Amino acid sequence: MGLFKALKRQLLKVIEWKDDSTDTIVYRYPMDDRAEIMNGCQLIVGPAQSAILVKEGQIADIYGPGLHRLETKNMPILTSLASWKYGFDSPFKADVYYVNTKQFINQTWGTTNPVMMRDKDFGMIRVRAHGKFSFRVSDAAVLMREIFGTNRDYRTASLIGHFRSIVVSSFADALGEANIPALDIAAKYRELAEVLIQTSKDDFAKMGISVEGLFIENVSLPQEVEQAIDKRTSVGVMSDKMQSFMQYQTAEAIRDAAKNEGGVAGAGVGLGAGLGMGQMFAEAMKNVKDEPKPTEDTKVSCNNCGKAIPANVKFCPECGGKLPEKRFCVKCGKPMPASANFCPECGTKVEN
After folding, report:
1. In b/e form, how buried is each residue of 164-200, taking b as 16+ CB within 10 angstroms?
2. Are 144 and 52 a contacting pair, CB within 8 Å?
């Protein structure tokens, strides 16, 4: 019975990890009842996996996806560590670790406290942000040395807190490097995310991790800045209708003043409306030009003799002929026919 158990421990011929989880980063293959690996044992490494042999606490050989026979020729580092000068035939002891190299997506991040930002329009302001990112293991050996150690397995929950801290601390640096005004941040999420990836790249590389994608879902600005953005948007929408808008506002002010007639508030509104109307009339009168009234120096032609005579006489001084009576509008001052009942220019009724 003792001999059978000994043989069972030495018959480890296939090593394979079938990952059925979504968050396992590193997995140590269980060697409890099979503590030794046979010569020629098949090591199966699946897609998006790496396998690492660890001998006496030292990282030995690393294998990528595929089928590998564990022999002296394809275990150079382990052979050197074990001092196998002429190969080996007997089983050997070593730990096998599988590292998941796939992308771990939908990892969330967000600022717990506001981040200070210097803006050219608003000075120092506080902003908050949140989003998602994805990462993968880029260097399995570095990850094993710096993070994993000798744990049985390692999941994303063990690392995500530290990863979020890196992203958030890099966010403040990214804001400074991107130099994006607060009013334009909403339109520059992608650009800011690219800068954020670059600023955090070195910190992740020290752990054998690479950030494959990072997304900013929202940057919350102070209420005062958001109000300024709303006002800027409103002005942009009304830019081509500003004159009509001002006229409408003036009419509304006059209506409100009429409703509050006699009160202090009504007086204030009425005064504002009066000033507004005054400005409107002033603008309208800029385009009105006064027509000069006829003087003694103004000349007209006599209908009888054709001589040039003063416009304000009733009889021709040359031939004595009576000139047609001319009338002028009392409002606009423009000439009009003697028989006219209304001014043809301004429509004012003529008093006979």
Report:
1. bebbbebbbebbeebebebbebeebbeebbebbbebb
2. yes
**In sequence order, which residues have a C-beta less than 8 Å from that of residue 96 and are 6 or more positions away?**
15, 28, 29, 31, 37, 43, 51, 52, 53, 54
Taking the C-alpha atoms of residue 54 and residue 27, their distance in angstroms, rounded to an integer, is 13
pLDDT the model gives residue 342 = 79
Sequence ranges of the domains in the chain: 8-100, 104-225, 244-288, 291-352
Mean pLDDT of 53-57: 83
Say which amino acid occupies 75.
M
C-alpha distances in angstroms, 229 versus 100, 121, 181, 226, 234? 46, 12, 12, 5, 9
**pTM score of the predicted model:** 0.59
pLDDT at 320 over 50: yes
**Rounded Cα distance, 330 and 69, in Å:** 116
DSSP code per residue over 106-151: EEEEE-SS-EEEEETTTEEEEEEEEEEEEEEES-HHHHIIIIITT-
The two beta strands, 37-45 and 12-16, are parallel
Residue 69 has, within 13 A of its CA and on its CB side, a CA count of: 5
**Are the beta carbons of 39 and 78 closer than 8 angstroms?**
no
- Between the alpha carbon of residue 186 and those of residues 195, 251, 303, 337, 342, the distances in Å are 15, 37, 79, 68, 63
Q: Which of 289, 292, 254 lies closest to 274 in space, CA to CA?
A: 254
For domain 104-225, give the CATH number: 3.30.479.30
Rounded Cα distance, 139 and 134, in Å: 16
pLDDT in tens, 293-307: 555 566 777 778 878
